Amino acid sequence: KPFVIRQNNPSEGTTTFHDEIYGDITVDNSELDDMILMKSDGYPTYNFANVVDDHLMGITHVVRGNEYLSSSPKYNRLYDAFGWEVPKYIHCPLITDENHKKLSKRSGHSSYEDLLDQGFVSEAIVNYVALLGWSPEGNNEIYSLEELVKEFDYMRIGKSPAVFDIQKLRWMNGEYIKVMDEDKYLELALPYVKEAVKKDLDYKMIADMVKTRIEVFPDIPAMVDFFEEMPEYDVEMFVHKKMKTTLESSLEVLTEVRPILEAQDDFSVENLNTVIMEYIQNKGIKNGQGLWPLRTATSGKQNTPCGAYEIMHIIGKDETLKRIDISIDMLKKAIG
Question: pLDDT confidence of 216, banded at 50, 70, 90?
């Protein structure tokens, strides 16, 4: 007749074990079940095999989630029954989402691979996760893997659950991108630039101008898509209180600047800066009064990763004049 072999745990008294984070923990033996060690098919259970394997492998520290605290007394009794040294236990606090629910793939939470696919870099993910539930000395938050190895001390792990804040991870990822090696950055960024910009433009220059502005690489397309095609935009964007621009002043600037730009053979950033600043000074207006209409007319966006000179240089003379003409027509119709 098939049979199983169970662990014979006492039903009276208590069992105490020590955890490096939670200290001494005592449980009533009446709460310990006689867990199965060998199944009826002759194979060992995971719990039994786990203890034997850890001992044979010379495991000195068992690091796992604190949901396994309750199983530690049964493990310890197995170690004692064999006369083996009990390893040190380090039960780590849970990592939860913003709603304090345990992270779970089943609940739609991202895995490490998912985060990579979402444009996070491996170094930032490791750095951020290492800080969940662990507090290093000092206020530094950016650590290389080598620095983490040097600084990490499990005695500084907290007991309370740590919240996985995706916005904090985005910030940290952005910090890693800012200091990323140029070749590696371009390797990761250029596919996203080319996703949004199909025209034969200066991809490297476009990628470089967003490097300090993005938090994850998928941020790039929405920042640079205007280089490919002007978006539809509200003519009221030309009105900017801080820049002291109106529809009328913007129309005047664009109408006067257009022939100046048309006369230029050199559409470099440096030359565009020279001729536009000369126009602004001669007209006696503030820089913003001249540059805001130009940037709006050539990008169709309130926020761009660069200024008007860079935009005009990248899209070129013909496209610049075309976009300015469209904006002039829009302003004339709006003013009436």
Answer: very high
- The structural domains of the chain, with segments of one domain joined by +, span 5-92, 96-177, 180-227, 235-335
Q: Is 105 a catalytic residue?
A: yes
Mean of the pLDDT values across residues 140-167? 93
Q: Cα 83–87–92 angle (5° rounding)? A: 150
Residue with tokens 């919240």: 163
Fold for the domain defined by 235-335: Arc Repressor Mutant, subunit A (1.10.10)
Q: Report which secondary-structure segment, H or E, holds 6.
A: strand 5-6
**Cα–Cα distance between 74 and 270 in angstroms, integer?**
75
From the candidates 105, 150, 242, 333, give the one annotated as an active-site residue.
Answer: 105
Nearest to 233 by CA among 144, 327, 320, 169: 327
CA distance linking residue 293 with residue 280, whole number of Å: 12
Q: Which fold has domain 96-177?
A: Glutamyl-tRNA Synthetase; domain 2 (1.10.1160)
pLDDT, tens digit, for every residue of 87-119? 999 999 988 888 888 877 776 778 899 999 999
d(CA 49, CA 167): 41
How high is the pLDDT of residue 309?
A: 97
Nearest to 140 by CA among 166, 110, 175: 175
- Output 135-140 pairs: Cβ under 8 A, ≥24 positions apart: none
What amino acid is encoded at 289 in this protein? Q
- The first and second tokens of residue 15, run together, are 């069992």
The CATH homologous superfamily for domain 5-92 is HUPs (3.40.50.620)
What's the alpha-carbon Rg for the chain, to the nearest Å?
A: 32
- Nearest to residue 39, comparing CAs of 6, 7, 72? 6
